[in-house]
Write a structure and sequence with these properties.
Number of strands: 24
CATH topology of the domain at 51-155: Glutaredoxin
Strand order of the largest sheet: 1-3-2-4-5
Shape: extended
Distance between the termini: 84 Å
CATH class of the domain at 51-155: Alpha Beta
Structural class: alpha/beta
Helix content: 40-55%
Strand content: 15-25%
Oligomer: single chain
Radius of gyration: 48 Å
Number of helices: 26
CATH architecture of the domain at 51-155: 3-Layer(aba) Sandwich
Length: about 850
C-alpha cells in the first residue's frame, strides 16, 4: 500500500515538474474556494438576529414570583421561606402553559398565604433552568412540602383539581381524635390507612415523620389521593381497630382481612410503607383521566376485560361527599362482596321464587327427593314466575342426574344413622347462570304404611310436590333478600371493572360512546343528574349504553344494567355510533315542504338509516363503502357520481354510500377493506353480491355488475303473488327459488369444468416448468464451472500483471539509476576532455617554445 502511494506521489510530482502551469492553477482554485466559504459564513452570521429578551409571563397582580429569565438558583431561596412551595415550569410560546396560567393564578389568589407560588421560564436559552433541565413537555408543576419533594402534579390543569392537590399536600394526614371520626373515616369506599403514634415521650415520635413521608409518597403515585392516610394518637381509639403497639400502620380492607405493616419483614421507611399499601389495598372504583394527547392509558385499562365506564359530575373541592359517587361505590362494593353471608342472602333470594318436583329415588323404596328450580327475585315479577323443568317424558334422565348428584349421598347417610326421618339439601348453579340454581332435598318416607300403600309405592313415578324444605327457609325480611348484585363478581365469568371519569373533562369520549347532546349540561335534562354509563368490551369489540327511564334511580338502573350484562344470554343490544343527520334536520326545519328539494344523486347513509334504506325490498341498492382518510375512495368519487347520473331516472335502483369510519354497522354488513362495493338486489336481500376485487372499478364494469345481479333482470319473470290464498303466493316463490338453484347448480358445473381445464393446463405448465428447471439447473452448473475457470484465469492474470508491474517498476528504477550514472559519466567525460585539451595545448606551447629556443640558439 505504501509503495502504491509513493508511486502516485512520484507520478504527480513528475507531472507537476513537467507541467508547472497545472500546479499554479490548482493553487489558485483552492484560494478562491477558501475565500468563497469565508465570505458566505460571514454573511450568514449577520443574517441571524439575536433572540428577544423574555418578559413576564404572569401578570404583576398575581401572587406568583415570575422568574422569566430562568433564574433557577433563586428557587431554593424562595422554597426555604415557605413550608409548601409550588414551582410552575413553563414555556412562553406553549398554548398549554398559557391555558394553565389562568388556572394557577386563580389558585394562587386563594392559597397565597399558605403556599409560595413560583413560576420559572425553562425555555430561555441563556437561563440556568434550560441548561440544567430537559423537559419534554410544558407546563410542569412541582410541589415541595418542607424538604420533601418534588411531588409532580400529573392531573388536569384545572383550578379545582390543582387546588385539591395542593390541599392534599398541605394536610397529607387526617387526625382522628375519637372513635366516631375513625368509623366515619373508614366508612368510605376508598382505601384507608391508619397510623397509631403516641405523642407522650417527645413532640414527634421517631416513626411519625416516616409515616408522614409515606403519605406524600402516595401522592406522587396518585394525584387524586385515593388512598387516604389517617393518624390516631389515643390508645382507646386505636383499640377500636385492635391496635395496641405504638408506631403501627394499619391498612383497612373492606372485602378481605385488614393488614398491619410487617416491621419485622420490611424496613420501616416511607418508600416501603407506600409500596406495601399499593400492593395490598383494595380498589373497587378506578378513576380514569385520559391526558387528551396520544396515550395508551385507556387501551391499557380496557384490555384487562369488560369495563363499566361511569361519567359523573365531580367537584374535587366539594365538602360533602358526592351522592352519585356514593351510590356507584355502594354498587361496586356489593358487586365485589363474595363472603359467606352474601351467599346465604343469595340463597334466601333464590328460595323466594322456586318450582319443585318430588321424585322417588330408584335405589330405595323409602326415600324421595325434591328438586327445586330457584330463580333470583331481582329478575322475576309475580306474573313471570314459570317452572322451566324438562318434561318427565323427555327429561327424566336429566332429573335423575340431578338426583344422583345431590341426593344419593344424603340417602346413604340417613340409612347409616337409622333415623326415622332425615333431611339433607345441596345447591348448585345451572349452566353458570348467576340468577338460577337447582336445590335437591332428600327425605325419608314415614315407615307407618299399610300393605296396599307399600305395594303401590314402587310403581309411583312422581309424588305430589312438597313444601320447600325447612333448611332453606323463605326470607321474610325484604332488606335481607338478595338484590342480584351482591357477590356477582364471584358468580359469573363476565366480570366487570368499574371506572369513573369526570363528565366535564371527558365529554368528547362520552359523545363517542353514545351520549346525546352538545355539552355535558344536556345530560342533566335527560338523565336528571348529569351521569352517563356504558359497558365497553374491547375483546368482543362491542359496547352497551345505559338508557335510563325518568322514574328509575341511578342505583336501580345500574343494577339492572349489570345484571343484564352478566346473564348467560344477555338482553343488551350493541350500541352503534353513527353521524347525526344535523344538516338534514336543519334543512327540514327551515323548509317544511320536503318535496321542493330534488332527490340527491347519491344517498348518504348513517347508522340509523342504513337498514331501512338497504333492506328496501322494492329497490336494488348499490352501496359504496368509504372513509374520509382513504385516498382510493376519493379517486373513485367521480365514477360513482357518473353512475348515479346515468341511473337517476330509474326509480328501482338506488346508489348509496356509507362512511364506515364514522358509522358503526351490524357485523354482517361490515367489509374487510375500503373501498368496497356491494349490491343488495330487490326481493332477495340475503343474496347480496360484492363487486369483484380483481376488476377495475370503472363505469362500464359497474353497469355490467348491476345488470347482471340486479333483481329486475334476474327475476324478470317473477309472478305477482296472488291474493286468493297462502298456497298460491308461496308456490311461485318456491318455483323461482328452484329455478335459481338450478341456475346455480349449472353454474357450478360449468365452473367445475373450467376448473378441471385450468388444473390440466396447470399440470402441463408444471411439467414444462420441471423440464425447464432441470435444463436451467444444468446450464447453471455449466456456468458455475465456467465461472470457476474464469476466476482461476483471473487470479493467474492478476498474478502475472502484478509480476509485470513489479518488473516494470524495477526497470523504471534501473533506468533512473542509469540516467543518473549517464549524467555523471557525461560530466566526467567533459572534465577529462577539458583536461586533455589543456594538456595538449600545453604540449603545443612547450613544443613551440623549444623550437624558438632552438632557433635562437642556432
Amino acid at each position: 500500500m505504501l509503495r502504491r502511494v509513493r508511486q502516485s506521489l512520484r507520478q504527480v510530482l513528475f507531472l507537476m515538474a513537467r507541467r508547472p502551469g497545472l500546479l499554479c492553477g490548482a493553487i489558485v482554485l483552492s484560494v478562491l474556494l477558501v475565500l468563497a466559504v469565508k465570505f458566505t459564513c460571514s454573511r450568514a452570521k449577520n443574517v441571524v438576529a439575536a433572540a428577544r429578551p423574555p418578559v413576564r409571563f404572569f401578570s404583576t397582580e398575581a401572587p406568583v414570583v415570575d422568574l422569566y429569565l430562568g433564574q433557577l438558583d433563586q428557587v431554593e431561596r424562595l422554597r426555604s421561606m415557605a413550608e409548601v412551595s409550588l414551582i410552575f415550569f413553563y414555556a412562553p410560546w406553549c398554548a398549554h402553559s398559557m391555558a394553565a396560567r389562568q388556572e394557577v393564578q386563580q389558585v394562587a389568589k386563594k392559597l397565597a398565604k399558605q403556599v409560595q407560588f413560583v413560576a420559572v421560564n425553562c425555555w430561555w436559552s441563556q437561563g440556568k433552568c434550560r441548561r440544567q433541565n430537559r423537559f419534554y413537555q410544558y407546563p410542569i408543576i412541582h410541589l415541595f412540602y418542607r424538604r420533601f419533594g418534588p411531588i409532580e402534579y400529573k392531573g388536569p390543569f384545572v383550578a379545582p383539581y390543582v387546588e385539591s392537590f395542593i390541599l392534599r399536600v398541605i394536610t397529607p394526614l387526617t387526625y382522628l381524635p375519637s372513635r366516631a371520626t375513625l368509623e366515619e373515616f373508614l366508612s368510605y369506599h376508598e382505601p384507608r390507612v391508619v397510623g397509631f403514634f403516641q405523642f407522650n415521650s417527645s413532640p414527634q415520635p421517631p416513626g411519625y415523620i416516616t409515616y408522614l413521608s409515606s403519605a406524600l409518597q402516595a401522592l406522587k403515585r396518585d394525584f387524586r389521593g385515593i388512598v387516604r392516610f389517617g393518624v390516631v394518637t389515643n390508645k382507646q381509639v386505636a383499640e377500636a381497630i385492635s391496635l395496641e403497639e405504638d408506631e403501627t400502620v394499619y391498612l383497612y380492607r373492606r372485602l378481605n382481612s385488614s393488614l398491619i405493616f410487617p416491621r419485622r419483614e420490611r424496613n420501616f421507611t416511607s418508600e416501603a410503607i407506600c409500596s406495601w399499601v399499593f400492593e395490598h389495598h383494595e380498589t373497587v372504583l378506578h378513576w380514569l383521566q385520559p391526558p387528551g394527547t396520544k396515550s395508551r392509558l385507556l387501551e391499557h385499562e380496557l384490555t384487562k376485560g369488560p369495563a363499566l365506564l361511569l361519567f359523573l359530575p365531580h367537584n374535587p373541592l366539594g365538602s360533602n361527599p358526592n351522592s352519585l359517587l356514593q351510590q356507584v361505590a355502594d354498587i361496586a362494593v356489593r358487586y365485589h362482596s363474595c363472603d359467606i353471608n352474601n351467599h346465604s342472602n343469595l340463597d334466601k333470594s333464590f328460595t323466594s321464587h322456586s318450582c319443585c318436583q318430588s321424585v322417588l329415588l330408584p335405589e330405595s323404596s323409602t326415600s324421595v327427593c325434591e328438586v327445586c328450580l330457584s330463580l333470583s327475585q331481582s329478575i322475576l315479577t309475580s306474573s313471570s314466575i314459570r317452572c322451566m323443568f324438562p318434561s318427565m317424558a323427555h327429561g327424566e334422565d336429566v332429573l335423575q342426574s340431578y338426583l344422583r348428584h345431590c341426593c344419593l349421598h344424603q340417602e346413604s347417610a340417613s340409612v347409616s344413622m337409622k333415623t326415622t326421618t332425615s333431611l339433607g339439601c345441596s345447591n348448585f348453579l345451572n349452566s353458570y347462570s348467576p340468577f338460577s340454581q337447582y336445590s335437591a332435598c332428600c327425605r325419608k318416607v314415614e315407615p307407618q304404611l299399610n300393605q296396599s300403600q307399600t305395594k303401590e309405592e314402587p310403581d309411583m313415578q312422581k309424588v305430589p310436590p312438597m313444601a320447600p324444605s325447612s333448611s332453606i327457609p323463605p326470607s321474610s325480611d325484604p332488606q335481607q333478600e338478595g338484590d342480584g348484585i351482591t357477590g356477582l363478581w364471584c358468580q359469573t365469568n363476565r366480570t366487570l371493572r368499574f371506572y369513573v371519569l369526570d363528565v366535564a373533562l371527558n365529554w368528547p369520549l362520552a359523545l363517542r360512546l353514545g351520549a346525546t347532546g352538545n355539552t355535558s349540561a344536556s345530560l342533566h335534562q335527560e338523565a336528571g343528574d348529569g351521569s352517563f354509563a356504558a359497558i365497553v368490551n374491547l375483546k368482543d369489540e362491542v359496547h352497551y349504553v345505559l338508557h335510563r327511564s325518568p322514574e328509575a334511580t341511578l342505583t336501580e338502573s345500574l343494577e339492572a344494567f349489570i345484571r343484564n350484562f352478566s346473564a348467560p344470554y344477555s338482553l343488551l343490544q350493541r350500541h352503534l355510533v353513527g353521524e347525526e343527520e344535523r344538516k338534514a334536520g336543519d334543512e327540514g326545519t327551515r323548509h317544511p315542504d320536503k318535496h321542493q328539494h330534488p332527490r340527491p344523486l347519491i344517498t348518504e347513509l348513517t347508522t340509523s338509516s342504513f337498514l331501512p334504506s338497504v333492506m328496501d325490498l322494492q329497490k336494488d341498492v348499490l352501496l359504496f363503502y368509504y372513509t374520509q382518510w382513504c385516498g382510493f375512495c376519493s379517486v373513485l368519487n367521480h365514477v360513482i357520481i357518473q353512475l348515479a347520473r346515468l341511473l337517476q331516472g330509474n326509480g328501482t335502483i338506488t346508489v348509496a354510500r356509507v362512511n364506515v369510519a364514522r358509522n358503526d354497522l351490524p357485523w354482517e354488513f361490515m367489509v374487510d377493506h375500503v373501498p368496497s362495493i356491494l349490491l343488495f338486489p330487490k326481493y332477495r336481500k340475503h343474496f347480496s353480491v360484492k363487486f369483484p376485487d380483481e376488476l377495475p372499478i370503472t363505469l362500464p364494469n359497474l353497469l355490467h355488475f348491476i345488470l347482471q345481479h340486479s333483481g329486475s333482470v334476474q327475476y324478470a319473470d317473477k309472478p305477482v303473488a296472488a291474493s286468493s290464498g297462502a298456497e298460491e303466493g308461496v308456490g311461485p316463490i318456491f318455483r323461482a327459488e328452484f329455478r335459481a338453484l338450478q341456475h346455480e347448480v349449472q353454474a357450478l358445473h360449468r365452473a367445475r369444468e373450467r376448473l378441471s381445464q385450468q388444473l390440466a393446463q396447470l399440470w402441463r405448465d408444471n411439467r414444462r416448468l420441471k423440464f425447464d428447471t432441470r435444463s436451467l439447473e444444468a446450464q447453471n452448473a455449466e456456468l458455475q464451472r465456467e465461472r470457476q475457470s474464469l476466476e482461476e484465469q483471473h487470479r493467474e492474470k492478476s498474478w502475472q500483471l502484478g509480476e509485470a508491474v513489479r518488473r516494470l517498476q524495477e526497470l523504471a528504477d534501473t533506468s533512473e539509476n542509469l540516467l543518473n550514472e549517464n549524467t555523471l559519466l557525461r560530466v566526467l567525460l567533459r572534465a577529462l576532455k577539458d583536461r586533455t585539451e589543456t594538456k595538449e595545448h600545453e604540449e603545443v606551447e612547450r613544443t613551440e617554445a623549444e623550437q624558438r629556443r632552438n632557433h635562437m640558439a642556432s
